[in-house]
Amino acid sequence: MNDFLARLAGVIGSANLFTADTDTARYTTDQRGRYHGRPLAVARPGSTAEVAALVRLARAHQVAIVPQGGNTSTCGGATPDGSGRQLLVALERLNRVRALDAANHSLTVEAGMTLAAVQQAAADADRLFPLSLASEGSCQIGGNLSTNAGGLAVLRYGTMRELTLGLEVVLPDGQVLNALSGLRKDTSGLDVKQLFIGAEGQLGLITAATLKLFARPTAHATALVGVRDAAAAIAWLNALKDAFGDRLTTFEIMSEVCQNLLAKYHPGQLPFTAPWALLIELSDSGDSAELGERLVAWLAEQDMLDGVVAQSEAERQKLWQLREAMSETQKRDGPSIKHDIGVPSSAIPAFLDEAGTALEAAFPGVRVVAFGHAGDGNLHYNVSYTRPGNAELFSDEPRVNEIVYDLVYRHAGTLAAEHGIGQLKPHWLARYKDPVALAVMKTIKQALDPAGLMNPGRWL
Ligand SMILES: Cc1cc2nc3c(=O)[nH]c(=O)nc-3n(C[C@H](O)[C@H](O)[C@H](O)COP(=O)(O)OP(=O)(O)OC[C@H]3O[C@@H](n4cnc5c(N)ncnc54)[C@H](O)[C@@H]3O)c2cc1C
Question: Is residue 431 part of a domain?
Answer without folding.
Answer: yes
